[in-house]
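Worked Example 4.2. Consider the chain below.
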Amino acid sequence: MCGVAIDPAMTALQDAFLTVAEAAREPAWLAQWRNRAMQGFIELSLPTRAEEAWRFTDLRPLITPRGLPAQAQAASADPFQLAAHRLPGEAHRIVLVNGRVAPDLSQIGELPHGVWLRSVSETINLRPDLIRAAFDVSDAFGAQSFAALNAAFFSDGFILAVEPGVVLRHPVEILHLGEAPDSQAYHLRNAILVGADSQASVVETYIGSGPGWTNAVTNIDLGGGAVLRHVKVQAEDAAAIHLAVTRARLAETAHYDSFSLITGARLSRQDIQVAMAGEGASLQINAAYLLRNDQEATIAPTVDHRARGGQTNELLKGVMADRAHGVFLGSVMVREGADDTDARQLNRNLMTSPTARVDTKPELTIHADEVKCSHGATVGDLDEAALFYLESRGIDPVAARTMLIEAFATEVLDVAALPSEIDAYTRRYLAAWLEGDSQ
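Applying the procedure from the previous section yields the following structure tokens:
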């Protein structure tokens, strides 16, 4: 980004914000929050490679009017197009088209008593107490440019709130479809609040066509003993941009199980920021990023152990083909007093082309005693001996190559141990990527 002028883009964003603010009919506190967030974004501007957290990421594709929000219009899509991407079995489904909930395509169904699942636009008026949970002080006063921009411009999203002691038997399915014909942005704001001793599963899928920009922020709060499984499939158009920040806070003995499969977008980044605030909280992060052509993807989990007895297990694997670029930035902090923490972090990468690239930077900072912590990263090519063995058994070279890539990537799914229907769903996207690799 060095030497690239961004003033025109910033000016366009400021003008767009004034237009949005004038048209909005929202509570005064929300209007004030948006205004402060926009000011925060202007002060921060876009990150550059001079910043350590962004030095591996090429943000030049964003130096366009991509940040301008998609036009407010009725959300519509072909139901048959969506059918191929729906989660099998029963689910509480919300469909968003170009960043806005499409009621005609959504099927929330009957929810158990004590569960709230609605769009952000509805929740603003009906449950202002819940909408406030979708915001964080860092949106307006922190150092996260894109979260601040999101807080200023967000149009919609979803809110899931589960009261203490409630078990949501069927998963919540959030299906995002981006179909803007140009480089418009979808600023999505979400919150998942799971009360003490409650359980829920959320499956998010991002698909679409065209060069749109998804900029999503999700705040998660888990009460004591709560369990959340959060699955994300990002399979957007090869010209798209996808940036997402997920912030989670775990109370005592809460468990957060995060799984991500990334196959789409020209440029993508997933920031997963988890505060292990309660004693005995546990975290599982599994992710696979499968890239080809000129794709670039960054996954950046940051885990902050603040209490005793926390457990973190991370397995993140990347496959890079052609000229693709994968980035892993993993950080685990164990604070003073967070004794008996057990934290393990592993990033493994497979390069299937001499022109593919990977940057991996796992970090571990420990300020407590009696901990079990480890981290590591590997980068390698396809095993020539294994390829020779398969080919010597009569397997076609292309098929042999695909088999080895599949075996490497599916380890993440095996470790994640997702419920059968969700597991089969994610493997469909993995198979689709492998089919493209074998052609």
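The first strand starts at residue 92 and ends at 97. Residues 1-6 have pLDDT under 50 and may be disordered. Compare this with Example 4.1 before moving on.
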